[in-house]
Amino acid sequence: MGFFDQFWQLTIDGLMVGSLYAVIALGYTLVYGVLQLINFAHSEVFMLGSFGGLFAARALLPDGGVPGGFQSVYLVAVGLAVGALCGALAAFTLERVAYRPLRRRSAPRLAYLISAIGASLFAVNLAGKEFGRQNVDLPDLFHNDTVFTLFGADVSTQSLVIFAVAIAMLVGLDRLVAGTRLGQGIRAVAQDADTAVLMGVNVERIIIVTFVVGGLLAGAGGFLYAMTFNASYSMGFVPGVKAFTAAVLGGIGNVRGAMLGGLLLGLVESYGGYLFQASYKDVIAFLVLVAILMIRPSGLLGERLGRAA
Amino acid sequence: MLLSLTDVEVAYGAVTALRGLSLEVDEGEIVTLLGANGAGKTTTLRTISGLLRPRAGELRLDGRPLSTIPAHDLVALGVSHVPEGRRVFPSMSVRENLLMGAYRDRRHTREDLDRVFALFPRLSERIGQVSGTLSGGEQQMLAIGRALMSRPRLVLLDEPSMGLAPMVVQTIFEVIAEINRDGVAVLLVEQNAASALRIAGRGYVLETGEVVLSGTSASLLSDDRVRQAYLGEDLTPTP
Ligand SMILES: Nc1ncnc2c1ncn2[C@@H]1O[C@H](COP(=O)(O)OP(=O)(O)OP(=O)(O)O)[C@@H](O)[C@H]1O
Ligand SMILES: [Mg+2]
């Protein structure tokens, strides 16, 4: 079958994965926006959220057979909520333990990077020890039927759930940043932290909120990811770097840029993986990263957190 | 006394910027702070706002020491700071910038917006414009308007006339006088000594982090050192 026969199927798959990249990318971009810090441990926030959601859903899963109806909705909702909470808790702890002490000492940039890598290694190895070094399965929480066909492509329940939840989170975050007082505080700190203080903004609180919001999204995203790919202690790295790529692609620090970047990267990967070979997917993502850094380092929509919101 | 600084010392690392500075601002007055580039005027205002912490000395607002109050709470105590270089939030609209001024208290936003637009009708015409694209004069109006949105009792103004055309400078000074007529105290940092002394009741002259001269505007205006150094008058006797 040729590319054009597969085009819509590849588009749907690409958008599904891309919407997950976008959800994770927001965590990178928000933190970068307010602190000009690349939080390389964000991938582990995603991983821990994923495990949290997975174990919660598994604990409530009844024996025998795939649940259906209301029970499925309930299980997915619990998984998302617990995943989000675990992600938020991980991000909060990360900020407190790995970054805040450095901020208090006005440490140089490199110290943050080293601290991030240290925190990341710690989280990965702790998860490896506690949850084992194999894949941890998340059984089906619903019958993964084809819901409808779009231009001849099958849209499964799973793609639909992932895409719908991810888009709802993206829209919610966008509204938060653009339309609430809290969002105004975030944007003010991103644009000019000293002047934000003069306006009465508590910068430390904004920083914590930013980490927590990024953690909520990554944790819920981690659970969505586990629904398709299961979970493992080392699962964070690759989606993490891809989400970071998505953030850079859209313009790091820019909320709508991260969303656009995630969806685009998902599509490019999906088309590219088909045209070349599925195993080239990751290569393609990193080629995209290198290419943007060379051609347009400020990303598609530019660098400012305030601008697109 | 609304605001008092006593023997305040501030340093940037090894560089001492304020060396035992004392000054006072009373309820409802306009006080100006004059001084050459690098004298420490901006440092003084940033210390009052809590962005810098003194190495020694004391700051009091309404007689209460400010040392334990976080910088972001000062606006809630009635102090508004219009920073040097305006510092409007460039990607926010005029309206959003003004709302930032009311970040801590949104109860009177509508009324206060109307009041700012009455002072600066130009701003109401630009309400949706992204602030980074405003002219320098408009940005200064916005910065002042934003500071008024918190209903301050004391406004700190850092060189509001910097880089502006004489017409705009006049508008700005008229507005400062008008704000003051409503009972708001103003601490005005200026290079434009003539205009500043015209609206201020008192003034301080700062040199390398110290007050070298202070007094009523009238006495400063007639002081030879002030006339020579800050009013640009040539005092060499004509033969
Ligand atoms: N961030 C800083 N780091 C080191 N030194 C600084 C810093 N900011 C100011 N200074 C120094 O402190 C002194 C006072 O500076 P300040 O900005 O308060 O002067 P100013 O009176 O506001 O001058 P201007 O009229 O040029 O705005 C100067 O010698 C300046 O070089
Ligand atoms: Mg200055």
Short description:
Chain A is mostly helical. In chain A, 75% of the residues lie in helices and 3% in strands. Chain A has one domain.
Give a written overview of the molecule:
The complex is a heterodimer of chains A (309) and B (239). Chain A has 12 helices and 2 strands. Chain A has a two-stranded antiparallel ribbon. Chain A is mainly alpha-helical. Chain A has one domain (12-236). Chain A has helices spanning 3-35, 42-60, 69-104, 109-131, 157-179, 181-191, 193-198, 203-229, 237-250, 255-275, 281-295, 305-308, and strands spanning 146-150, 153-156. The mean pLDDT of chain A is 92. The termini of chain A are far apart. Chain B is of the alpha/beta class. Chain B folds into 2 domains: 1-78 and 152-233, 3-Layer(aba) Sandwich (Rossmann fold); 87-151, no CATH class. Chain B is built from 9 helices and 10 strands. In chain B, the strands form 2 sheets. In chain B, strands 6-7-8-3-9-10 form a 6-stranded mixed sheet, with helices on both faces. The longest helix of chain B has 16 residues, at 166-181. The relative contact order of chain B is 0.18. The structure holds adenosine-5'-triphosphate and magnesium ion. The site of magnesium ion (MG) has 4 residues of chain B, from helix 1. Chain A: It is found in: Cell membrane. Chain A: Belongs to the binding-protein-dependent transport system permease family. LivHM subfamily. Chain A: Keywords: Amino-acid transport, Cell inner membrane, Cell membrane, Membrane, Transmembrane, Transmembrane helix, Transport.
